[in-house]
Specification:
The protein has about 160 residues and is an alpha+beta fold. It contains three helices and seven strands; from the N terminus they run αααβββββββ.
């Protein structure tokens, strides 16, 4: 039987190889983490924090309107989707004459956001067809304004297949 002779040089190369592999793996993970997601989830977070009382007042004014909104989204073909919103007042009567715009935002990837404008298709029902590059989760943000100047903002997460 031949006995292997381990010298100080073997131990040194073994340790350098081991720690070199650990540093290379950690470096790859850090690069991928920084390259794929910026970590920014809210634009102007500091200013939004300062304006929090204004946000609460706007939410209370919107709640006092009593509008009821139901959002639906269905697949059409070729990556196209129909996004529809039904607006009703506190008594269930359809709301007409609204100007509605908004956006669809991909919560996990930047650069895929789409602006949309919903058109009236029936009493109280507004819809828009939009082409999206990917299925999955999207954040819908709608802003509606009535002819009387009342405004309503809706944020909802959609799962598009």
């Amino acid at each position: 039987m031949i006995a292997a002779r381990i010298t100080g040089r073997h131990v040194l190369f073994g340790l350098l190889g081991f720690f070199g592999l650990v540093f290379a793996a950690n470096g790859a993970f850090v690069y991928l983490a920084l390259d794929t997601f910026s970590g920014l989830s809210t634009e102007n977070a500091y200013q939004r924090g300062l304006d929090y009382n204004e946000t609460l007042r706007a939410a209370e004014a919107q709640r006092e309107l009593g509008w009821r909104v139901t959002v639906t989204a269905r697949a059409l073909d070729g990556g196209r989707y129909r996004v529809a919103a039904d607006f009703a007042d506190r008594h269930g009567e359809p709301l007409d004459g609204l100007a509605i715009g908004g956006s669809l935002r991909r919560p996990t990837q930047e650069g895929l956001d789409r602006e949309i404008a919903l058109e009236r298709v029936a009493p109280g029902r507004y819809a828009s067809d939009v082409t999206l590059p990917l299925a999955g989760q999207w954040d819908l943000v709608l802003s509606a304004r009535s002819p009387a100047g009342q405004s309503y903002t809706l944020e909802e997460r959609l799962w598009l297949k």
